[in-house]
Amino acid sequence: MKKYYILAMCILCAICGCREISVTTTVNTDGSLERVVTTGDSSGVANSVYPIPTDSSWTITYHETKDDSDNVEKKYKAVKTFKNIAELNKYLECKGDTIPRMGIKVDLNKKFRWFYTFFEYTETYKSFNQFHKLPPADFFTVEEIELIKAGIDSGSIEDRLEEWQGHSIFEEFYQPFLEYVEKLGDSQLTPESVRSHREEMLKIVDEEEPADVEDFLKKLETILAAPSVWKLENEIKTMYDDISKKIDYMGNFYTIDFTNTVQMPGLLIDTNAPTVEGNKVTWNFESVRFYVYDFEMKAVSRVVNKWTFLVTVVISMGVLLLLILSIVRKKG
After folding, report:
1. What is the tally of structural domains in the chain?
2. CB atoms within 10 A of CB 308
3. Angle at the Cα of 137 (from 204 to 133), degrees rounded to 5?
4. For 95-144, what is each residue's pLDDT tens digit?
5. Rounded to a whole number, what is the largest CA-CA distance in the chain?
6. What sign does the dihedral 139-145-149-151 (CA atoms) show?
């Protein structure tokens, strides 16, 4: 069932290069946000899993550049200012024309604290994993989960992710298949037989890579010694096609490299970004960063409320003046 398709896309991306998507968000003190989206390859903009703007509400420009081999590449840039965070989220929730868009959620909390106003910005890329019958917590150790969430790249974690991917794809087939067998009520094909041959069935999905549904059914028939599996041909074909579509969709993410930059107002006081320049923070990452778990990017800044200092001085002077007048009257 194309277990290695996603891995193959990673290798292809490393060899041939990925689409690079760069997003810069400028947070303004009034709560408005300017969003700039650029990509080094303008082809296929409308069919990207990332919500690349194409409508007229954005200012979209193209310009051509040449690489070291004099190949011409058409660059794309889109700019738009959103009144508030709700308007930006509404845009991000728009559905794609041909394929589902990736999930992105932004939040902006503005807290007034008299002398300062604090701005907390978070942008979350939702996990694009399409197989949920094997929860990560049921497969990975606590230590492995911490490494995955931290985005730590290591050979052992990559191997474990690949193993989990294969098991997850198998469970997407195995659990519904077992239910179909129970409903079928055929003496040749029993739930007990399916359970007893679970590991052999896993090997088919995880290692042998059936060429198509017919090949898959033949292997199942051999393992289970039950020609009755062909009675479930339509159900298995539906599951097979559904799994293949999910794998194809996930493969779209492995052709993209991301750069996310946020310009905060005032003084930056906290962030989980690896790159910080003044009040500008940047994350550079690949899609595997939000394969298993959501990836949250966070930045916090504060802005001095100059007018509150003036008001405080005026009030303080007024109080002081009243105290002086009170003392003078008492002496008089």
Report:
1. 2
2. 15
3. 45
4. 766 678 899 999 999 999 889 999 999 999 999 999 999 999 999 999 99
5. 114
6. negative
